[in-house]
Amino acid sequence: MSFAAPAIKSFQPPRRTLMGPGPSDVPQRILDAMARPTIGHLDPAFTDMMEETKQLLRYAFQTENKLTFPVSGPGSVGMETCFVNLVEPGDKAIVCINGVFGGRMLENVKRAGGIPVVVEDNWGEPVDVAKVADAFAANPDAKILAFVHAETSTGAQSDAKALAEIAHKHGALVIMDCVTSLGGTPVLIDEWGIDAAYSGSQKCLSCKPGLSPVTFGARAIEKVKTRKTPVQSWFMDLNLVLGYWSGEGKRTYHHTAPINSLYGLHEALVILAEEGIENAWARHRAMHEQLKAGLEKLGMRFVVAEDARLPQLNSVYIPEGVDDAAARARLLNEFNLEIGAGLGALAGKIWRIGLMGYSARPENVDYCLKALEAVLKA
Ligand SMILES: *Cc1c(COP(=O)(O)O)cnc(C)c1O
């Protein structure tokens, strides 16, 4: 078989400014870290770095949980890791849906053989705590509560602490999606009593996509260890992954870790620790305020009410008469600026402007506002 000479001899990506729902801009320091030589994943130098990565992740999650590590896979694999381990066939799970990602949680519960009880809220609104309390009252045998802390499809943040409290009153475990919140707004795993949580490397941590930090508390581990049925996924079975990630020196082979990607995650977490997590939260908030002032000057309206708005994901209605696809194409082609389109019911109606991690900087906000102004004028 012959092949045509590749048109792309060595891929040179265009220089973009990423202000969508992720990935966010990756700082050069992280790109440099990932370009260092690949070593063996059982090399002591590598495993030392992994130990420190776990420590740094505990800081990011604000937890003492020993079982805190990056799953080798995107946020979706972190999500699936939580569900396949914690939902056994026949387990009742209350699933909150107020956007795209809650819908994926529902799909995970079904595929794990669980019995879902759905609590639905309008897209753009936070999860209604009273409805969750009612769902538990009607289903006292529910074993799991699952919700998305920061709904990236809408920009709404839910009250994780209040939701976890209700679940614990009923003896249920809490699975929380904090893919978009980690590093951008407070994620307080221990203070809120979250039993299992998953995140992603490419949102407010500003690393490359493809890694999913997860954390599991004692009650969640107990559930995994006392399952009556084996976890149906070999790759994601925590009982097996543990042999690699919690070996404390004597690690066994499970899968080949994405070595260079993990250099990048380590660097991203060092950057977060250097800045200080409270400062990172404050920076996201300040950049949101700056963006909001500019967007309102342009006459744009926010989708989410002020008290539930995520600073790192700004959903605004597309102004009347503006062609969604054409405007975003101009932003990309003329300004090298990526913003996010609406998803599902909000497709064609909203834009999602991300201020995640390294993208949450004053120069990005200014640049985005200038580009939007130019495109909206046309
Ligand atoms: C991005 C995202 C995911 C999925 O992460 P991937 O890395 O794309 O698999 C899950 N949940 C939320 C809330 C997200 O924003």
Q: Indicate the CATH architecture of the largest domain.
A: 3-Layer(aba) Sandwich
The dominant shape is globular
State the fourth-level CATH superfamily of the largest domain.
Answer: Type I PLP-dependent aspartate aminotransferase-like (Major domain)
* Strand segment tally: 13
Question: Into how many domains do the coordinates divide?
Answer: 2
State the share of residues found in helices, binned by percent: 40-55%
| Cα-based radius of gyration, to the nearest Å | 21 Å
Q: What is the CATH level 1 assignment of the largest domain?
A: Alpha Beta
Strand order of the largest sheet: 2-10-9-8-5-3-4
Describe this entry's structure for a reader.
By secondary structure, the chain is of the alpha/beta class. The protein has two domains: 109 residues, Alpha-Beta Complex (Aspartate Aminotransferase, domain 1); 244 residues, Type I PLP-dependent aspartate aminotransferase-like (Major domain) (Aspartate Aminotransferase, domain 2), CATH 3.40.640.10. Helices cover 41% and strands 16% of the residues. It contains 13 helices and 13 strands. The chain has a seven-stranded mixed β-sheet with strand order 2-10-9-8-5-3-4, sandwiched between helices. The protein has a four-stranded mixed β-sheet with strand order 1-12-13-11. Strand 12 and strand 13 form a beta hairpin. Helix 3 crosses helix 4. The radius of gyration is 21 Å and the shape is globular. The model has no long low-confidence stretch (mean pLDDT 96). Bound molecules: pyridoxal-5'-phosphate (PLP). The site of pyridoxal-5'-phosphate (PLP) has 13 residues, from helix 3.
